[in-house]
UniProtKB/TrEMBL annotation:
UniProt domain Methionyl/Leucyl tRNA synthetase: residue ranges: 34-311
Gene3D superfamilies linked to this entry: 2.170.220.10, HUPs
Gene behind this protein: Mars_0
Molecular function per GO: ATP binding; methionine-tRNA ligase activity
GO CC entries: aminoacyl-tRNA synthetase multienzyme complex; cytosol
Stated name of the protein: Methionine--tRNA ligase, cytoplasmic
Length: 313
């Protein structure tokens, strides 16, 4: 308190000169380098105050604080643009998925500018860098034996000649009998649903009745990672600032045993899967979207690896 009072009494003239980072902002040897990301907002709607308060504003406040401390700071964000929700919105508005993304990316960017959010760069996930980096990570997983293939029972609309991703199916919830449940979740009881469990399923595109058919998919073999993940978690819990909720959820996953997780979808709109037998599929958005933080940084600077592969700084 005494130090703060003394600094206040000496006035702004006694403060160190503000750090002016180079453009693009890159890590600097000997400085504290801080990379800040906001959760990527999904592109299929107009952002509202809750979205801004929920993730953007807190990160923006921290970015401003870091800059005031003269820390070398890079703050990036962007719209998350792949997945079934974009395709669904495109059908609703009579546009292509790319047109929907272009429309709502511009709306998002304008709103954040109006709120004076201090992003160093606001990008998007539908870029060549996203494809390159996501496919590279996929190939590394494949080469190291962390992927497996399995057959999945999935709803197929013979009228539309396509397998239906979760959000292209509606029906009656098997748990609470709500008649407008989606193929991934019931909005009434909140339970997660496997689309084939829906009663009276309907294709959202043509209102036809889909049939259950087998289809091949790729899975991330998470059980293979458990032995390496547990000691890393113990160390990270001991040295990091995990919230109680984050610790509890993570412990419950480890306690119950990790399960293989499907990383592909029978969709057109997404990052293509670069593997024979699966080239008509795309990556599931929850495999693809987190890679957006890397690809957005890569669109900001071709030296993006200095931020993401530089633990010493």
């Amino acid at each position: 308190i005494a130090a703060a009072a003394d600094a206040w009494a000496r006035g702004a003239a006694a403060l160190p000169k503000p750090w002016q980072p180079q453009k693009p902002v890159l890590p600097v040897e000997g400085m504290r380098n801080v990379l800040i990301t906001s959760a990527l907002p999904y592109v299929n709607n107009v952002p509202h105050l809750g979205n801004i308060i929920g993730c953007v504003l807190s990160a923006d406040t921290f970015a401003r604080y870091c800059r005031l401390r003269n820390w070398n700071t890079l703050y990036v964000c962007g719209t998350d643009e792949y997945g079934t929700a974009t395709e669904t919105k495109a059908v609703e508005e009579g546009l292509t998925p790319q047109e929907i993304c272009n429309k709502y990316n511009a709306i998002h960017a304008d709103i954040y500018r109006w709120f004076n959010i201090s992003f160093d760069y606001f990008g998007r996930t539908t870029t060549p860098y996203q494809t390159t980096i996501a496919q590279d990570i996929f190939q590394r997983l494949l080469a190291r034996g962390f992927l497996l293939q399995d057959t999945v029972e999935q709803l197929r609309c013979e009228n539309c000649q396509r397998f239906l991703a979760d959000r292209f199916v509606e029906g009656t919830c098997p748990f609470c009998s709500f008649e407008e449940a989606r193929g991934d979740q019931c909005d009434k009881c909140g339970k997660l649903i496997n689309a084939v469990e829906l009663k009276n399923p309907q294709c959202k595109l043509c209102r036809g009745v889909p049939v259950v058919k087998p289809t091949q998919h790729l899975f991330l073999d998470l059980p293979k990672l458990e032995e390496r993940l547990e000691p890393w978690l113990e160390q990270s819990w001991a040295t990091g600032d995990w919230t109680a909720n984050a610790r509890y959820i993570t412990r419950s996953w480890i306690r119950d045993g990790l399960k293989p997780r499907c990383i592909t979808r029978d969709l057109k709109w997404g990052t293509p899967v670069p593997l024979d037998g699966f080239r008509d599929k795309v990556f599931y958005v929850w495999f693809d979207a987190p890679i957006g933080y890397l690809s957005i940084t890569a669109n900001y600077t071709d030296q993006w690896e200095r931020w993401w592969k530089n633990p010493q700084q």
